[in-house]
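Dear H.,

Thanks for agreeing to be a second pair of eyes. The structure we're designing against is below in token form, covering all 307 positions.
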């Protein structure tokens, strides 16, 4: 059995407009790389971090915390070293902490001969995610580990549903280079919502799930609406309304905040339209003094992969 594995751990989009804390999908062109190595010396060590300044202490690092949770539970007869080549900026809203938390447990599981299934891996990865966002949610982790679109039916006990990915669907993203901490963007949310908003939101979640199952792009368009979270969080994202109207005008099916922001995602019915959308939203941010990155990605139906 191999002693070392190199993986691509993808960025993800959580919430997908109407599905706060339950829906997510996996990106393909953006992600971290990690090397996980089996060692004779017991324990978990983070030996290399490139890209961003993150803690080497395993108990302070999301990849380390999820790795320790799995390690303490399985008690294998070896240890592990983790190298993190971080490409996803922390606080970007595209699942930076999830990519690290999921990557370490995915790599260890592979090196141990796959003793755990994907739901069990997600459970351990949630321990790492909790370090970053102060709450155990799996809507970024599930798509990173399972690929495609996922729905977290229940966090405790953890139950994840895999949803189909319509083949022509492409994502466009803009990442304004400002940091929004998930814990802070959760703190501004209301504790209660009007019943009329709850009805609209769960109708949209149901219809989006149906639209994914039937590859009904018009229904995807009608369902990518968030009346609960977006009105609060969009205030944290400069020019959100301008980006959204430019994206919809350029042909996007929908546009909403990616996870807790500041990234904004759009879904489109072809790569050509997704690239047109990218051009349109770049024009909006080009008139500001905020630095930004944009991406176009197919939906990654595989999730984390060995490279
Ligand atoms: N569902 C979480 C939130 C995702 O929106 O707070 C955080 O990336």
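And this is the sequence the design step returned. I haven't edited it by hand at all.
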């Amino acid at each position: 059995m191999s002693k070392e594995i190199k993986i691509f751990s993808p960025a993800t989009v959580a919430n997908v407009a109407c599905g706060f804390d339950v829906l997510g999908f996996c990106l393909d062109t953006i992600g971290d790389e990690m090397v996980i190595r089996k060692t004779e010396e017991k324990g978990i060590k983070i030996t290399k971090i490139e890209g961003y300044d993150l803690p080497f202490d395993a108990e302070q690092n999301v990849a380390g915390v999820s790795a320790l949770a799995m390690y303490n539970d399985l008690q294998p007869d070896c240890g592990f070293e983790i190298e993190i080549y971080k490409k996803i900026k922390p606080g970007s809203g595209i699942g930076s902490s999830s990519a690290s938390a999921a990557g370490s447990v995915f790599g260890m599981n592979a090196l141990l001969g796959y003793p755990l299934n994907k739901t069990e891996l997600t459970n351990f990865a949630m321990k790492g995610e909790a370090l970053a966002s102060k709450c155990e949610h799996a809507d970024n982790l599930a798509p990173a580990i399972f690929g495609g679109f996922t729905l977290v039916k229940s966090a405790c006990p953890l139950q994840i549903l895999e949803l189909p990915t319509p083949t022509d669907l492409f994502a466009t993203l803009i990442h304004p280079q400002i940091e929004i901490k998930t814990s802070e963007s959760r703190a501004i949310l209301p504790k209660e919502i009007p019943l009329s908003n709850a009805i609209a939101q769960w109708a949209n979640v149901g219809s989006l799930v149906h639209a994914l199952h039937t590859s009904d792009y018009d229904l995807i368009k009608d369902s990518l609406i968030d009346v609960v979270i977006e009105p609060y969080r969009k205030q944290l994202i400069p020019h959100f309304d301008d980006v959204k109207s430019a994206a919809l005008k350029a042909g996007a099916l929908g546009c909403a905040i990616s996870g807790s922001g500041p990234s904004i995602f759009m879904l489109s019915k072809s790569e050509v339209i997704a690239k047109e959308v990218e051009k349109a939203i770049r024009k909006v941010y080009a008139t500001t003094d905020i630095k930004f990155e944009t991406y176009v990605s197919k939906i990654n139906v595989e999730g984390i992969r060995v490279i």
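Two observations from my side: The two ends are 16 Å apart (CA to CA). The pocket of L-homoserine is lined by residues 14-15, 20-21, 133, 137, 139-140, 182, 186, 259-260 (CB under 6 Å).

Warmly,
E.
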